[in-house]
Amino acid sequence: MPRVPTKLVTWEEIVDWSRGLANIIKKSGWRPDVIVAVARGGYVPARLLCDFLGVENLLSIQSQHWTEAAKAEERAILRFPYVVDMRDKRILIVDDIVDTGDTLITAEKFIRENWYPLDVKKAALQWISSVAKIKPDYYYIEVKEWVWFQYPWTRLEDVTSFIKRMISEEAKNGRIAWTFNDIVSSFREWYGIDVDKIYYEDALENLIEMGFLDRKDNLYIIKL
Ligand code: ADE
């Protein structure tokens, strides 16, 4: 059994889901004048929606999560809260996934209060209905049980942090040295997914550069 419920998402699925989402938006009869991608997850879906909906105006805002002092809960804030005049524009805010919903809630509030648009709607490829505080106006897939979706644009970042977590946990049981093949087979067991070899190689290079691992002969050794 994988330790972290994870699903690998391919580029082909992203294109299919974005096309499906565009068709749902078209059928609703509502058309955006401007698409706002929420960085960074919303970039690829937003760009594909521009193509499938024939929208030329694409801009972006970036959301960042941070933990308030002495609070377990994370809050979403905007990194570069610039102001533009959108008085006569219908805006579609796009993200990859609505998980807690905090990102889209924060983005919509900021845009309504500062850009004065004619209208704002929210879209995402996926909506985790069991945990999200909001339901986006448009979504392609409703996810009922929380899963980590391994999107193609965070593959290296995710594989790096997944390997780091796996090796840290196994170090608690006294395991400190791994061959490349050990890491790959444990990764498959832990996460129930597999990625191209180059991602494991690059992730291990990242972990060496970060000072988390050492390589000696053919072994990767955790630096304690
Ligand atoms: N970003 C926020 N929640 C996520 C999830 N469940 N899978 C992938 N990316 C996410």
Characterise this structure.
With 224 residues, this protein is of the alpha/beta class. It has two domains: 145 residues, Rossmann fold (3-Layer(aba) Sandwich); 70 residues, Winged helix-like DNA-binding domain superfamily/Winged helix DNA-binding domain (Arc Repressor Mutant, subunit A). The protein contains six helices and eleven strands. Strand 5, helix 3 and strand 6 form a beta-alpha-beta unit. Helix 1 crosses helix 2, helix 4 crosses helix 5 and helix 4 packs across helix 6. The longest helix is centred in the N-terminal third of the chain and has 18 residues. The mean pLDDT is 96. Bound molecules: adenine (ADE). Adenine (ADE) binds next to strand 8.
Task: Briefly characterize the structure.
The chain is of the alpha/beta class.
Identify the bound ligands: adenine
* Helix-residue proportion: 25-40%
Strand order of the largest sheet: 4-3-2-5-6-7
Number of domain units:
2
Q: Could you give the order of the helices and strands? A: EHEHEEEHEEEHEHHEE
From the 3D structure, determine the CATH topology of the largest domain: Rossmann fold
Global structural class: alpha/beta
**Which stretches are poorly predicted, pLDDT < 50 over at least 5 residues?**
none
- The average pLDDT is 96
If you compute it from the alpha carbons, what radius of gyration comes out, rounded to the nearest whole angstrom?
A: 20 Å
Largest sheet: 6 strands, mixed
For the secondary structure, the number of strands is 11
**Architecture (CATH level 2) name of the largest domain:** 3-Layer(aba) Sandwich
Instruction: Determine the number of helices (DSSP H or I, runs of at least 4 residues).
Output: 6
Strand content bin: 25-35%
Q: Would you state the CATH class of the largest domain?
A: Alpha Beta
